[in-house]
């Protein structure tokens, strides 16, 4: 790995995405409570978390607004959620790994899917725009260029001015992170953490990474 250029995923790779979700829920709960006095932000936040735990994402705001007969446009709540400014922190091992590469003048890239405003809010909160040489938010290119599209991988490699076969992609989601990277000749590494939507996902080898790690500090030995 020593001569390869690391390209990272964002959510649940460099920070805990559940922190962002909780931050968004608090913002939406406050937004609703400020308009409707018959519910409190604490009650709404608790209900958001309960529905997330029991039913997953997708219809949380609809379910809670129906429960309390809150006459509000759900699309407005989604907008409030996506546009809120979170306070996020990098995982300790992510911070250590990024500093390791930066202090050794090893260029690093980032590829992340999701709503553009949301992802850039996360990037700004984590100050990743000051750390990474190249950042590609795939939605800026169009939803058709989300992973596993080949486009973001090629775009980052080109911006870093390195052959794509000299790159390694580090992510957490085998549904989309590694299959294209491997087809393009990149090495792939999967980070498995205690918390995350995809940590228990296991797929056929074609979707899985070449290597699995449990802390990004394990990367340091590969580049030493």
Describe the protein's architecture and organization.
- The longest helix has 17 residues, at 17-33.
- This protein has a six-stranded parallel sheet, sandwiched between helices.
- The radius of gyration is 19 Å and the shape is elongated.
- 44% of the residues lie in helices and 11% in strands.
- The model has no long low-confidence stretch (mean pLDDT 96).
- With 224 residues, it is an alpha/beta fold.
Quick structural overview:
The chain has 10 helices and 6 strands; from the N terminus they run βαααααβαβααβαββα.
Mind sketching the topology for me?
Elements (H helix, E strand, L loop, with lengths): L4 E4 L8 H17 L7 H15 L4 H8 L6 H10 L8 H12 L5 E4 L3 H11 L7 E4 H4 L8 H11 L6 E5 L7 H5 L3 E5 L19 E3 L4 H6 L1
Parallel strand pairs: 1-2, 1-4, 2-3, 4-5, 5-6
Helix pairs in contact: 1-2, 1-4, 2-3
